[in-house]
Amino acid sequence: MFENLSERLSGVFDRLTRQGALSEEDVKTALREVRVALLEADVSLPVARDFVAAVQAKATGQAVTKSVTPGQQVVKIVHDALVDTLTGSEDPGALKIDNPPAPILMVGLQGSGKTTTTGKLAKRLKERDGKRVLMASLDIYRPAAMQQLQILGQQIGVDTLPIVPGENAVQIAKRARTQASLGGYDVYLLDTAGRLQIDQTLMQEVEDVRDAVKPRETLLVVDGLTGQVAVEVAEEFDAKVGISGVILTRMDGDGRGGAALSMRAVTGKPIRFVGLGEKMDALETFEPERIAGRILG
Ligand code: GDP
Questions:
Q1: What ipTM does this complex have?
Q2: Disulfide engineering: 248 pairs with which of 151, 189, 214, 224, CB 3.0-4.6 Å?
Q3: Which of 116, 149, 220 gets mutated to test ligand 1 (max ligand atoms within 8 A of its CB)?
Q4: Mind listing the UniProt keywords for this protein, alphabetically (predicted)?
Q5: What is the DSSP secondary structure assignment for residue 64, as one 8-state letter?
């Protein structure tokens, strides 16, 4: 397991204090440890580097070197800076779903947890926000995925669009919109098809659906354990289809959550929710404090 940052820094400062007063150089040494800790938590190298440079400026101006517990002091500065980076002006849990029926497009790679997350989000919107929700699977390549969403719908008591064989993704999306309007739904979730890797056909299809329904939110579902890959996926989806937010899944796993920091720093998009298990209620609003604590170990 990882040695946590506080312990690691205490070690550094113990060594340093034996040599007398701490200098700016000592703070630099400590921040090298911070950088290693960030990399171990799966933060990407350029993001870790920039972050440490920003923290250096803050730490130098403060009385870190005079503190009796300089290690903890640095950890606090780093923690606060992490929270700052992860916090945006938006409220992560508040989706733009006024003007019913509001379309929400769920995008991401196959296996990221997209269908499961669609169900979780539908349940949350229904139970916490009191919304009438309709779900539709646009995965014409995998009939099993369409059935999976229907089964989830039955489990959580959320309606799904009936499956009509032979339609393309745009036709299904438009039918969902019609049904959502006629049926008095507040929001409809479109679970788009995923691929194992990003390819042109997938992107084109998502773009066509986007142009057809003009989603209020386009939420990218990514596996939080995939670190740097998750960030690349987010950059690519954002460049091609434009995303409004991110949902990180598998945050119940062993990962240290560094993907969250890289994601925010690189794409500037808010992380809205995190998936914390396979069950339908294992979805929580993103909390910068929790992720910061986890990154620091
Ligand atoms: P999709 O191909 O992107 O639609 O992926 P699925 O929704 O079918 O999910 C793939 C697997 O990941 C399923 O076994 C899910 O139960 C599991 N899964 C999804 N989200 C989470 C999560 O937050 N935590 C854990 N542990 N498993 C998850």
A1: 0.99
A2: 224
A3: 116
A4: Cytoplasm, GTP-binding, Hydrolase, Nucleotide-binding, Ribonucleoprotein, RNA-binding, Signal recognition particle
A5: G
